[in-house]
Structures are given as structure tokens and as C-alpha cells.
Amino acid sequence: MSEPTSTEKTTKPEGAPAEKAGKPKKANARDMLREAGRVKKAKPVKEPKAKKEKAPREEQVVFAFRLTKDQRDTIHTAAGPAKASQFVLAAALSAAAKQK
User: Which pLDDT tens digit goes with each residue over 22-66?
Assistant: First the structure.
């Protein structure tokens, strides 16, 4: 009799049982960790959100003041840390609005 080919070795004869009932399935390391609660299941992939269009910015210009050190320190004291520019801008715009 000739030797069976590779396809003949892997095919099961008809009527053969699919699996033996008493034989447990082999577990790999990932399955064991997942059962122990140490490996999280993969999260579904989210589709990226559409990017919002930014509103066009109004063109800006620079407006400068010349101050003495005492005047600068007074503004910084009144405005608080890191807010002197916003304070001076608000004060200048408020004074200009009153003149109209």
C-alpha cells in the first residue's frame, strides 16, 4: 500500500466524532490571563470625528505703550500675575469707548 499524502492525513473519515467529549481544550497564556482578569479585551475601534472648521480670525496689529518701571509695577500689582496685558487692553478699550 502507498503512503498517504498530506491531504489524506488531515481529512477525517465520514462518521468520525468531531472531538472527544472528555478531552479539555488546550489553553494558551493569554486565555489564562484573561480568565484571571489580568488582560482586558480589545476595545472596538472608534471612527475619527470630522474636524470642525475654524472661524477666520480678524487681523490684529500691535499697539505699544512706554511706561516707567513704577507705572509697570503698579499695573502688575493691580492686574495680578500674568494678566497685565489683558488688564491694560481692557482699560484702554473701555476708556476709548467712553470717548465716543
Answer: 666 666 777 777 777 665 667 788 888 888 888 899 999 999 989
Residue 89 lies in a domain: yes
Please list, in sequence order, all residues whose beta carbon lies within 8 angstroms of the beta carbon of residue 63, skipping any fewer than 6 positions away: 92
Secondary structure of 71-99 in the HEC alphabet? Answer: HHHHHHHHHCCCCHHHHHHHHHHHHHHHH
Residue 87 lies in a domain: yes
Does 23 reside within a domain? Answer: no
Angle, helices 84-99 vs 69-79, to 10°: value is 90
For the question of whether the overall pTM of this predicted structure is more than 0.85, the answer is no
- Is 94 among the domain residues? yes
Neighbour-count burial for 37-54, b at 16+ CB within 10 Å, e otherwise = eeeeeeeeeeeeeeeeee
Q: Domain residues for 77?
A: 69-99
Q: How many domains does the chain have?
A: 1
